[in-house]
């Protein structure tokens, strides 16, 4: 049984809410509906509101930490994943595809890529004229420097 910061234990219903929240994929509305079956609706507001109450987040963190320990799970941190992908890129026995995928995942984890989603036709850019295309290609070549050799890899 966990306790609040002031030393008061969580009620049985709030502990039930925390267990349901951890077990249902972090759906506060559904967890509230299950833990407080006699409430008369409003779960979509009451569940998230309960998440802000003292002791709730701490109990959820405690429950999830125990689940990881009890199941022998080893969840890697962001830095550990980045180190793994970096090592994969340097691995001499790895295929080019594996290295490329590791590079992509590392780049995504460090926000190297920006996804642009156009929502209406006005957002689309007009095609480049041949002169604009030539100028853009020259600028790109100047910015990237020499091409990579086929041996790099």
Would you write up a description of this structure?
- With 153 residues, the protein is mostly helical.
- Among the domains are: 12-70, Arc Repressor Mutant, subunit A (Orthogonal Bundle), CATH 1.10.10; 76-112, no CATH class.
- The protein is built from seven helices and no strands.
- Helix 2 packs across helix 3.
Q: What is this structure, in a nutshell?
A:
Helices cover 56% and strands 0% of the residues. By secondary structure, the chain is an all-alpha fold. Among the domains are: 59 residues, Arc Repressor Mutant, subunit A (Orthogonal Bundle), CATH 1.10.10; 37 residues, no CATH class.
Q: What are its keywords?
A:
153 residues, mainly alpha, Arc Repressor Mutant, subunit A, 7 helices, 56% helix, 0% strand, disordered N terminus, disordered C terminus
* Radius of gyration, CA atoms, in whole angstroms: 26 Å
Q: Can you write the helix and strand succession as a string?
A: HHHHHHH
Poorly predicted runs? 1-5, 148-153
Structure class: mainly alpha
pLDDT averaged residue by residue: 80
**CATH architecture title of the domain at 12-70:** Orthogonal Bundle
Helix content: 55-70%
Extended strand count: 0
What is the CATH first-level class name of the domain at 12-70?
Mainly Alpha
| Biggest pleated-sheet summary | none
Distance between the termini: 54 Å
The CATH topology of the domain at 12-70 is Arc Repressor Mutant, subunit A
Could you tell me the strand content as a percent range?
under 5%
The total of helices stands at: 7
Shape: elongated
């Amino acid at each position: 049984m966990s306790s609040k910061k002031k030393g008061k234990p969580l009620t049985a219903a709030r502990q039930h809410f925390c267990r349901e929240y951890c077990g249902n994929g972090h759906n506060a509305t559904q967890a509230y509906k299950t833990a407080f079956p006699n409430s008369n609706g409003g779960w979509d507001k009451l569940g998230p509101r309960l998440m802000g109450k003292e002791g709730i987040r701490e109990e959820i963190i405690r429950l999830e930490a125990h689940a990881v320990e009890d199941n022998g799970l080893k969840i890697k941190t962001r830095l550990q994943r980045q180190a793994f992908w970096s090592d994969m890129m340097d691995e001499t026995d790895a295929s080019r595809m594996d290295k490329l995928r590791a590079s992509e995942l590392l780049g995504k984890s460090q926000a190297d890529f920006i996804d642009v989603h156009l929502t209406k036709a006005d957002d689309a850019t007009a095609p480049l004229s041949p002169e604009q295309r030539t100028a853009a290609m020259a600028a790109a070549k100047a910015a990237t420097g020499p091409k990579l050799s086929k041996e790099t890899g």
